[in-house]
Amino acid sequence: MLHDPNRIYVFDTTLRDGEQVPGCQLTSVEKIEIAKALEELGVDIIEAGFPISSPGDFQSVVELSKAVTAPIICALTRANKKDIDVAAQALQYAKYPRIHTGIGASDTHIKHKFNSSREEILTRAVDAVKYAKTLVEDIEFYAEDAGRADNEFLARMIEAVITAGATVVNIPDTNGYCLPEQYGEKIRFLKENVKNIDRAIISVHCHNDLGLATANTLAGIQNGARQIECTINGIGERAGNTALEEVCMILKTHHSLNLHSGVNSKRFSEVSGMVSRMMRMPVQSNKAIVGRNAFAHSSGIHQDGVLKHRENYEIMNPEDVGIEQSDIILTARSGRHALKHHLVRLGYEIERINLDEIYERFLLFADEKLSISDDDLLLIMGEGETFINGLVMKSIEVSCGDLNSPEARVKLQYKGAEHEAAATGNGPVNATIKAIESIINKHIELKEFTIQAMHGGSDDISKVNMRIYYDGKSYMGYGFSTDIVKASASAYLDAVNKFL
Ligand code: KIV
Ligand code: ZN
User: Which atom of ligand 1 lies nearest, measured to the CA of 172?
Assistant: First the structure.
């Protein structure tokens, strides 16, 4: 397997260690869906489950082995024949099966979990690997709680299991205890002191109890490990496992490490969302790489910087993790540059609008709200003197109902002068637009017109979208009001002001 010395093999345990989280249990169908996404992502090994733990887990490993064929499919066991037999049976359809067996390596585990001795544990470890090797060729051995184990004893154990046939040796920091230097040192110690270490791949499996899982994994691979065990979104027991997307993006970002994986990072955002939804585990907003805010800029200084040159405040390209573009979130901390950015995106020509005045209105609005949406922005644009020398609605009066045909009287301000007109139509909106048209005196075609209630209820705000054609070009306009006639007039004026 080890052809390229700089290749890092990615072992995903979302479906085993990740699924151990209370409330995150998945059905077989969901597991297969996630496994297929992991296969597409390009992971090298999928740990599909712990088959002896339940009939459901057993069946999931069987089904997954049939459905997913590119990666190695791995099943977990304890160091005993029964577990190993069941795992081998569950893996019978896997194209590339691997058994992952192991036992505690720290004195704490040896004494207080197994009530045993180092020598006895060593024998059990070797026996388990030898037995598993009779059933499956690819055997990974885990030395549980290796993070707290004595290095000399750990080296003896690792040498013995490699002799017994282990192809991969996993050195878990089961309790997330190690400091990066300590963990890196441990991997280096094994590299330098286990005589047959070149016959196996060293794997790192770090938990995040002190928030060091990613740092420890990195220290491990910098010191010679070539397989990383991780989960999507870093889910897993207690504070979780190493987040797959974090380590892979470190490798991609820091070329000086000269290490790479076969993972397609452009799928991170999608797979992260899928795992989060299926496991009912929301991703924290500030989670590195896949959190909602990972590529969102909200302070004025940062927004200005990132709009001037993305790399001022971004060390990764959002497209590399499957996010179309960074987010410039409009809040009361945003500056004119960010506001301008969004107005241009919404189709406004900056030279044609009173930016200072709009910015004042924006700040008043933003102080009331946590963040400003596109609808909020359009609402702000629909009020006051938005356009330089634009048409401004001064008043509208309409009469309609069964007695008279609908009539509208509008008063507009244009370049400092007031203009008034009245018109009739087949409804109050039609009459209002005709009255405005008679003031503008241009041939304008109304192509699209939709009225939408924002929330529901007769006291609701209506949102009007209009598309008009003038001189071979189309212009969008938006208007908001609790009065649908006013909302329609605002949308029309908003569109007209874009070319007037
Ligand atoms: O954390 C751990 O030690 C484990 C082993 C079972 C590999 O998950
Ligand atoms: Zn674990």
Answer: 3
Q: Which residue has the tokens 């974090």?
A: 246
**Phi, psi of 30, rounded to the nearest 5 degrees:** -65, -40
Å from CA of 45 to ligand 1 middle: 15
Residues of the chain with CATH 3.20.20.70: 9-278
Helix axes 55-67, 28-41, angle to 10 degrees: 40
Q: Give CA–CA dist 200/167, Å, rounded.
A: 5
- Residue closest via CA to ligand 1's atom 2 equals 174
Residue owning the nearest CA to atom 7 of ligand 1: 142
In whole angstroms, give the CA distance from residue 484 to residue 495. 17
Instruction: Map residue 260 onto helix, strand or coil.
Output: strand
Phi and psi at 455, nearest 5°, equal -130, -25
- 362-414 residue pLDDT tens: 999 899 888 898 888 988 888 778 888 889 999 999 998 876 789 999 999 98
Q: Ligand 1: which of 144, 177, 231 to mutate, judged by most atoms within 8 Å of the beta carbon?
A: 144
Ligand 1 atom closest to the Cα of residue 170 is: 7
Three-class SS state of 261: coil
* Domain 391-497 top-level CATH class: alpha beta
- Asked if pLDDT for residue 2 goes beyond 70, the answer is no
pLDDT tens per residue across span 107-141: 999 999 999 999 999 999 999 999 999 999 999 99
Looking at ligand 1, which atom is closest to the CA of residue 16? 8
DSSP line for 44-78: SEEEEE-GGG-HHHHHHHHHHHHH--SSEEEEE--
Ligand 1 shell residues, CB under 6 Å: 17, 142, 144, 170, 172, 174, 205, 207
From the CA of 78, which ligand is nearest?
Answer: 1
Helix and strand numbers, DSSP H then E, in the chain:
16, 16
* 203 alpha carbon, closest ligand: 1
Residue limits of CATH 3.30.160.270 in the chain: 391-497
Q: Is 447 left (phi over 0), alpha (psi -120 to 50) or beta?
A: alpha
Q: Name the CATH superfamily for 9-278.
A: Aldolase class I (3.20.20.70)
As a whole number of angstroms, the distance between CA 471 and CA 460 comes to 35
Atom of ligand 1 nearest to the CA of 207: 1
Give me ligand 2 centre to Cα 240, in Å. 8
